[in-house]
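Hi C.,

You asked whether I'd gotten around to modeling the 36-residue construct. I have! Everything is below, sequence then structure, no commentary in between.
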Amino acid sequence: MHIHILGICGTFMGGLAQLAIASGHQVTGCDANVYP
């Protein structure tokens, strides 16, 4: 499954993306701000 996450640079959404990738999903995302 392909999942697109809004606000992917945030702590929660970034962790959610990692869980989805670990489960075998294809993940893309976007965010208004990029944090170091």
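If it helps when you're writing up: The chain is about 35% helix and 30% strand.

Thanks,
B.
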